[in-house]
Write a structure and sequence with these properties.
The chain is mostly helical. It has one domain. It has ten helices and no strands. α3 runs antiparallel to α4 and α6 packs parallel to α9. It starts with a helix and ends with a helix.
Length: 242
């Protein structure tokens, strides 16, 4: 019996560090040309705000992966202590992210999705809002590990939009931007659901409902971005960002 319990613990321990590593690698690859390996390209230097944004989010990425490794190593004590610092870092990620969206809204460019910068601002704001809400729920429910860890994983899946957008540009898939965004989110959510089913023969509602909402939010935010109602809001964001 003890061998079976140990086996289940090992399966549990491997999943979250593995998906955390996969998420981190996906994000790093997505931003490789425009951020992490920018010095190897002929792109101009990043503005200070974007450098700060990249630095803060990279710190969160490292923290997220480290936290999953600590739990896998049964070091819940260090996990909880580091989590205190993580709350402050999450707040910083959200704050810098919002400022970056406002600043980017004033940029005269057309995104891979075909949206103008003022229109595209809702895409970034929704991603940040998702992250903020899910991390807040994860922190509030930190003593209920089955809920906490799922909210934290979904928070990371919810911010895959920007790196996916960079990959869409690199692979010249602009015409399929929305579909690719939805597929990437759906793929990671499906991985979570498959793990839940394998382990419990049932999918957890946080992964099922939260994951479905994330996928459906992509066409919804594109529709709002192109609506007449969002146009003055987007233009106001652009003016403030300028």
């Amino acid at each position: 019996m003890s061998a079976v319990v140990q086996g289940l613990q090992n399966v549990r321990s491997r999943f979250f560090p593995t998906i955390a590593l996969a998420l981190a690698l996906f994000i790093i690859v997505g931003f490789s040309r425009t951020y992490y390996l920018r010095f190897l390209s002929d792109l101009p230097p990043l503005k200070t705000l974007l450098q700060l944004h990249g630095l803060v989010f990279t710190a969160w990425l490292v923290l997220f992966f480290t936290q999953t490794r600590l739990v896998a190593a049964h070091r819940a004590d260090l996990h909880m202590k580091l989590g205190i610092a993580g709350v402050g870092l999450a707040i910083l990620v959200v704050a810098v992210g919002v400022v970056t969206v406002f600043a980017g809204a004033s940029s005269p460019r057309i995104h891979a999705s075909g949206l103008t910068s003022p229109q595209f601002s809702i895409v970034g704001l929704v991603s940040i809002a998702q992250f903020a809400v899910l991390v807040a729920l994860g922190v509030a429910l930190r003593r209920r590990s089955e809920l906490h860890k799922r909210f934290m994983v979904l928070a990371m899946i919810g911010v895959l939009g920007p790196p996916t957008g960079r990959l869409i540009g690199m692979l010249q898939l602009d015409a399929y931007a929305l579909v690719v965004q939805m597929i990437v989110i759906a793929a990671f959510v499906t991985w979570c659901l498959a793990w839940d089913w394998r382990r419990n023969r049932i999918v957890h509602p946080i992964f099922a409902i939260g994951g479905l909402a994330m996928v459906l939010l992509w066409p919804a935010r594109y529709a709002v971005a192109r609506s007449d109602a969002w146009q003055p809001i987007g233009e106001w964001i652009a003016r403030v960002g300028a």
